[in-house]
Amino acid sequence: MHTDLVAALDVGGTKIAAALVDGDGALLVRAQRPTPAREGAETVMGAVAEVLAELSGSPLWGRATAVGIGSAGPVDASAGTVSPVNVPGWRDFPLVERVGKAVGGLPVELVGDGVAMTAAEHWLGAARGYDNALCMVVSTGVGGGLVLGGELHPGPTGNAGHIGHVSVDLDGAPCPCGSRGCVERIASGPNIARRALEAGWRPGPDGDASAAAVAAAARAGDPVALASFERAAQALAAGIAATAALVEIDIAVIGGGVAGAGDILFAPLRRALQRYATLSFIRQIEVAPAVMGTDAGLVGAAAAAARVGPGGAVAVRG
C-alpha cells in the first residue's frame, strides 16, 4: 500500500538529521551530518542540502508529500526564517524557502525544536491521549511547546510555549535573553552546575563539572548538589504552574539531558508543584518524563508538517 510519507528535518547546533516518516511515526530512511556551526550560512545550508539529497535518493522519496522542519531557535515560522543561537552564521536565514527549492516545491512547515518535541510526545509519547499539555526540553537551554484542545499550538512564529523565558524570579540574575530570573537561567544544565560550583560543590577526580555530575553527587547525598537541583525544580514548578493558570494544562512532560537525573529532579519538582499549583483547576497536573528520546525532533517535525489527526493518524496536508 503506497501511503503518504513526510520528510522531516531536525536542525541543531551539533547535528542536522533528516528522515522519511510514515503515518505510524516510523523513521524509514535516515540521513545525518554534523552541523558546521562555526561556518558561514551557505556551508550550513550545504549540510542541509546533503541530508535532503540523501533522502531524495531513496526509492521511497516519491511518496513524500510535505517537509517538516524542527529547528533550534529563535525561529520565525511566519517569515520562514531561522536564527539559531548556536549557529551564528544563520541570522534570519530563509530556511523554508531554501528547503522548498531543494525538495522541488513540496509544502514546508517550520517550528521551533521545543514545539517539535511537543508534537512527538503528543503523537506517540508521554502526552499521548492528553488534550492539553506542556512539553519541555531541559538541557543546555530550556524550551517547550503546547498542545491545547487536542491540537499542537505553535503560535504565529512557531515559538509558543517557550517556558524557558518565563520570568520566575523578578529580581533574579540577568538572563542572556535580556530579561531577569528566567526559568532557563535557573533550571538549565549549565546553570545547575554553575550554582553548585558557586556554593562549594567540587567535581570528582575526572573533573566532570556537568549537571549530570551534579546529579550523581546529589544521588550520593551531597547537600550542595541536592540544593542546586531543588532550586531548578522550584523554577520549573513555578513556570509550569504559571502556564497551567494561563491555559489549563493536564500534564507537563519533561525531557532533555537534565530530565535524565530522574528522581533527583522529579521528586523535588512534584513537591514544589504542590506549593505553586494551588488553584482548584491546576492542582491535578501530572508530571511525566518524556519518552521519545533523540528521535523526538524528527518525529515531531513530521507531526508538525502532517498535523497529526485524531487518534494518532497522520492527516497530511498537500
Structure description:
The chain is globular and about 55 Å long. The strands form 3 sheets. A 5-stranded mixed sheet has the order 3-2-1-4-7, with helices on both faces. The protein has a 5-stranded mixed sheet with strand order 10-9-8-11-12, sandwiched between helices. The protein is α/β, with parallel strands linked by helices. It has 2 domains: 5-112, ATPase, nucleotide binding domain (Nucleotidyltransferase, domain 5, 2-Layer Sandwich), CATH 3.30.420.40; 126-291, ATPase, nucleotide binding domain (Nucleotidyltransferase, domain 5, 2-Layer Sandwich). The longest helix is centred in the last third of the chain and has 25 residues, at 223-247. The protein contains 9 helices and 12 strands.
The helical percent reads 25-40%
Largest beta-sheet details: 5 strands, mixed
Structure classification: alpha/beta
N- to C-terminal separation? Answer: 19 Å
Order of helices and strands: EEEHEEEHEHEEEHHHHEHEH
CATH architectural arrangement of the largest domain: 2-Layer Sandwich
Task: State which percent range the strand residues make up.
Answer: 15-25%
